[in-house]
Amino acid sequence: MTALFALATSLLWGLADFGGGLLTRRTPALTVVVVSQSIAVVVLGAIVVATGAWSEAGPQLWFAVGAGLVGPVAMLAFYKALALGPMGVVSPLGSLGVAVPVGVGLVLGERPGLLQIAGIVVAVVGVVLAGGPQFRGAPVQRQAVLLTLLAAFGFGAVMALIAEASTTLTGLFLALFVQRVTNVVAGGTALYISVRRGSPALPADGFPWASLPALGFVGLADVAANGTYSIAAQHGPVTVAAVLASLYPVVTALAARGFLSERLRAVQAAGAGLALAGTLLLATG
């Protein structure tokens, strides 16, 4: 069961990342976050009411609130990075967020093994190789790398928080609902401030009604991935769940190659591969 749900997590996150990256090339990233998460709130709200999940309310929901506050920042940074591209570099670097649960373990008294130390070294080398050639180019490329690393930290924090927010299936529905409501409130506030400062909330041709199904897919795929990861982590070894769930950049990269015909420089591809390898070493060490 752990392997099945963790692999489902990789597939869902990978497709959500690809869809979110495409949408932010036409629509402001904050709008993509708010609209996609609002759709998820409506669906989750219906599930919570239908299952009576309100009875699972308790102090553990504060973990969901924390995840909801961190999530929009991470998603905004990641979607902006994906829009700057290339996806095949951005997505593997985003998977470095698995280092956050490892850090939580260190705080709780765990010590890294040789594989984890090797993973840190390999991941850092991967970041340098993936971003280094771009540092000599346009500044926007460097911005994509920095935004991705910020997003990676946020994603790792969300993974650690949401795993602590529930212990039952109905409790998970409620936790995900609370997380997404917080996402919408935080993202909506940021969007309001952005508009007040003169940034557009919509594309020049108005609300992207034609993109509504894609926005819904991104929001629902992302929330479903959080749910499947939580189930995987609760029903088996967290290391196995983390390893399999961290393979989602492969899905994004394959989608970008298949649909966008993206081609990477050899050094960028090598760096992205090393970053992903470092992620796996961190999770398995």
How would you characterize this protein structure?
With about 280 residues, the chain is mainly alpha-helical. It has one domain (about 1-285). The protein is built from twelve helices and no strands. The chain has helices at about 1-25, 30-50, 60-85, 85-95, 100-105, 115-135, 140-160, 170-195, 210-235, 240-245, 250-260, 265-285. Helix 1 (about 1-25) crosses helix 11, helix 3 (about 60-85) packs antiparallel against helix 4 (about 85-95) and helix 5 crosses helix 7 (about 140-160). The protein is globular, with a radius of gyration of 18 Å. The model is unreliable at about 135-140 (pLDDT under 50). Belongs to the EamA transporter family.
Keywords:
0% strand, 285 residues, mainly alpha, 12 helices, single chain
User: What does the largest sheet look like?
Assistant: none
H/E element order: HHHHHHHHHHHH
Q: How would the global form be characterised?
A: globular
Helix content: over 70%
Distance between the termini: 22 Å
* Extended strand count: 0
Low-confidence stretches: 136-140
What's the gyration radius in Å? 18 Å
Structural class of the secondary elements? mainly alpha
Proportion of β residues? under 5%
What is the number of helical segments per DSSP (H or I, 4+ residues)?
Answer: 12
Structural domain tally: 1
What would you call the quaternary organization?
single chain
Average per-residue pLDDT, rounded, comes to 82
